[in-house]
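Aim 2, interim progress: modelling of the zinc ion-bound target.
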Amino acid sequence: MALYPWLEPIYQQLVSAFEQGHGHHALLFKTESGLGTPTLIRQFATRLLCHTPQDAVSCGTCKSCLLMQSGNHPDFHFIESIEGKDIGVDQIRDQNTKLQQFAQQGGNSAIYIASAERLTEAAANALLKILEEPHDNVYFLLEAPLNSPLLATIQSRCQSWLVQPPSFSIVYQWLQEQCPALTLDDIEIALRLCHQRPLVCKDFLETDRLSQRKRFLQNFWRFYKSHDIWLLLSEFGKEKEDILRQLDWISYFFSDALKAKMTVQSTWINPDLRNGILPFSQALSVQSLLKGYQIILQTQQVIREVNAINLELMLADALTKLALDVFATNDH
Ligand SMILES: [Zn+2]
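Predicted structure of the complex, ligand included:
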């Protein structure tokens, strides 16, 4: 199990914390998606369970390591939300029952709880009780998003580890190795669009999203010229996730146009669309560009926060606002 290069430093820090006696029986990994954090947690669990670790790494050959590799280690437990449901109290209670028995391989036990923010209140309270009375040789590894609404009482019982997106140059180099057929310009643009999250970016490049984005924004441009909302509406995906991504693309178009307007020197997200962004920026006032940008952000916020909404209606409303309140007011 190879670790992604950007996770190496935090892995080393984890291991040395434990070696120097600063380890903790409950670790909370706060992370964003697309950074490969599950591989970090599994690798660390393997190291915790290994009978004969070699410095920072697990040996890979002892019985424990072989059981981990086969996915059948009796002392490694994985708890997650099942079929999109919250993690219920029964899942935590079952786990606790298992912990009352001795570790079957006579060493450490590790319990990995993915999406810990999905614990129901009852489950979180049950977990809290367990964390308050730690068992020897039992380690809890919790994973939750950076700004998750995880119970403060649970957080206070854990040692927190922050897994952040790696630097631009590290991801850039890794992606070059992963996608050698792509141009460096494409990789650079994809990196900005994906907020430097390496695995998201790799998927983005491999699924040809870069050219999908270009086509979509060309249609956005046509919508801007014609004010024909149906022209762009038909280009939107059906899934929430796709729509949010497409709205991201429009918001970056606006933010680049604002940068051009205000001659801000910071890097553009879409340098390849310069020929569209520059005239767009020149034709619209700063107020209009800001307004357009805000319309997109507000639409995204509603789509994220409200569950039962008619997505097409939301989009039609946003595009109408753009056409009437942003584009039309600048026409001469
Ligand atoms: Zn081993």
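The beta strands are 26-31, 76-79, 109-113, 138-145, 159-163. The chain has a mean pLDDT of 91.
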